[in-house]
Amino acid sequence: MLRVRGGAAAAALVVLVMGAGLSGCKKDALGSEGPQETAAGGGGGPALSAVDSLAVKGRAPKTGYSRERFGTAWADTDANRCDTRDDILKRDLKNVKFSDGKCRVSGGVLEPDPYGGKDVTFVRGRSLVDIDHLVALSDAWQTGAKYWDASKRIALANDPLNLRAVGASANRSKGDGDTATWLPPNKAYRCTYVAAQVAVKKKYGLWVTGAEKAAMKKVLGSCPGQKLPSGGNPTQAPGRFHAK
Q: What count of other Cβ atoms lies within 10 Å of the Cβ of residue 124?
């Protein structure tokens, strides 16, 4: 697993604003925004309804999985000259500081960590903030990604829709868990978290297990107005990127 505005107790998410800037790590650069939360709502239709659109199957074997099958970590697939990790840190942290122009993030604050519910200070080189794949790459492998071409796997691994800056302490208990086996300790964030997982699985055509679907419906049943987030990058990475 690789580790993902932190202040995310808001009720819904809105569509990504996609730009095409190529100079610096700008907020409006392609894919740098990802799903954004606002109290006013937004995004697609209800996330609860979208759960029923997901195919239900058992997990495929984990055989053959490795992180390298999803390409080099934090590839600059949106061509904004910042790697994906810095894009997400800049998007999700507050009081951001840079060590290299407006791209390499050296510090900031997660206010609060969406998973743990407390503020976490980020200092580059320390492991207090992770970038989490909301749908873990190993889980994706076992629910369809093992059958994809490398371009689609690379896209998933670097898609802002599937990434969030989170506190390392809460995140590291997740492993490759799905909704049935792991939820954020911060209960106020669970609807947002599960809605994002549904959105990613729907966008990429990943399936869910029966237990996972039931767990998704249980969580989202407590917030039936939760919107399905949208946005992120295309589901195919540019041809210059390769994976094993």
A: 15
Neighbours of 44 (CB within 10 A): 18
Question: In the numeric block, which tokens belong to residue 97?
Answer: 């500081």
CA separation for the pair 56, 78 (Å, rounded) = 32
Please give the full DSSP string across the chain, using - where no structure is assigned: ---------SSEEEPPP-----SS--TTSTTSS-SEEETT--SSSBHHHHHTTS-B-PPPP-TT--GGGG-STT--TT-SSS-HHHHHHHHH-EEEEEEETTTEEEEEEESS-TTTSS-EEEETTS-SEEEEESS-HHHHHHTTGGGS-HHHHHHHHT-GGGEEEEEHHHHTT-TT--TTT---S-GGGHHHHHHHHHHHHHHHT--B-HHHHHHHHHHHHT-TTPBPP---S-SS--TT----
Write the pLDDT tens digit of every residue in 34-87: 444 433 334 568 999 999 999 999 999 999 999 999 999 999 999 999 999 999
pLDDT tens-digit map of 107-134: 999 999 999 999 999 999 988 999 999 9
Closest of 60, 42, 235, 64 to residue 157, by C-alpha: 235
Which tokens is 207 given? Answer: 């399936």
Amino acid at 130: D
* pTM, 2 dp: 0.83
70, 137, 180, 189 from 65: Cα distances, Å: 9, 9, 21, 29
| Domain ranges (residues) in the chain | 12-221
